[in-house]
Amino acid sequence: MTHGRTPQLFRSAAQGGPLVTPGPAALPGMSAGTAAPWPLYVPRSMKQHGAHSGYDLLFRHMGLQTASSAWGTRLADAIPAGLAWRLWQLRPQATAAAGLRAELGAMPWLARGQGHTCHFIYGEDTYFLTPLWQRKGNRSIASFHYPPQRLALRVNPGSLRGLHAVIVLGDNQRPYFEQLLPADRIHYCPHAVDTEFFCPASEPQPETTAAPRLLCAGTVYRDYASLREVHRLVRRAGFAVETDVVGIHEEQAAQLGGESGIHVHNGVSDEALRALYRGATLGVLPLIDSTANNALLEMLACGLPVVSTAVGAVAQYCEGSAVQLVAPGDPRILADAVCRLLADPAARQEQGATNRRHACTTLALHVVADRMRAIYARCLGA
């Protein structure tokens, strides 16, 4: 976020193209202009997610139409800079241009006609002003990703009351929403992972004499100061580990302090990320809080044994897996769990296989898509 000057909130196609990608004209069997039996979705991509990562992947997999219109986009582009700045300041979200642009792009679907439903797949960023123009007979659904403490800072309670349904990505979010909405409007549907792309290597990797590799990925709610201490403690215990860290901010890199044996990888492709998962001995995720966690799901899908901290909804996503969960806040406990697995190749192999099965049976795109369709059917009476 930029402070102290007016940001460039909107960009034109000539300045780099639209921020959203139009979907198909209609679902199979529908004529153009027919109200969809399932919602349209309000697209929002995160820059740190590749083509095989991120929440929007689920809705593209389902073949849903995007609620992004040229009419709404032109309106966004026409807003004077001064007014755009004030609208940005009103929003509790920190995403500014991208969130407001996506919301205005969905406006025509909800401000006219009847029988439309839009799913704001990142409700924290894209659902704020919509209740002002939503026409009776149209409905809104929103998914929320932040843990409860962050939700209180990033959403507008008055706007939430206009939602027909809320999708939570962790049951730790329920108490927050139950203060504002009837319980029957709140539905849990897990985050999905592309288990066809994120998968183990086709040939099992043989045990080698090379140094074991620990892997941590991602930026949000990561405790990189603890990871540095875990790395040190494991080395002191006699394991000559190398630790790979993927996709972090400069301030997080500073927490690692230039520690010997820690390697930072930024700007990697999906294929390079998958190669890092496959080449790792063990995934290590010291988390401060969480609902869904892309890195955790991708590690499970790649058949990687994982040690993480039991915070937020992590245990919910690990139920049925072999992830080793430890109490947060003490790197020594985390390091002890890492050392036990490093000393037991058979346990690592068994846990990795269990994690892969769990990802395929519970978190794969087609499995989660069926769960989402069931929620839509309950919400929409389909």
How is the secondary structure organized here?
Layout: E1 40-42, H1 56-62, H2 70-78, H3 81-90, H4 97-111, E2 117-120, H5 123-126, E3 139-144, H6 148-154, H7 157-160, E4 165-168, H8 174-178, E5 186-188, E6 213-217, H9 224-236, E7 242-246, H10 250-256, E8 262-265, H11 270-279, E9 282-285, H12 294-301, E10 306-309, H13 314-318, E11 324-326, H14 331-342, H15 345-363, H16 365-380
Parallel strand pairs: 1-2, 2-3, 3-4, 4-5, 6-7, 6-9, 7-8, 9-10, 10-11
Helix pairs in contact: 1-16, 2-4, 9-10, 9-14, 12-15, 15-16
Rg estimate, integer Å: 22 Å
Q: Which structural category fits the helices and strands?
A: alpha/beta
Mean pLDDT: 85
User: Can you summarize the main beta sheet?
Assistant: 6 strands, parallel
Q: Which outline best applies? A: elongated
What's the helical proportion of residues? 25-40%
Termini separation comes to 41 Å
- Which consecutive residue ranges, at least 5 long each, have pLDDT under 50? 1-36
* Strands, total number: 11
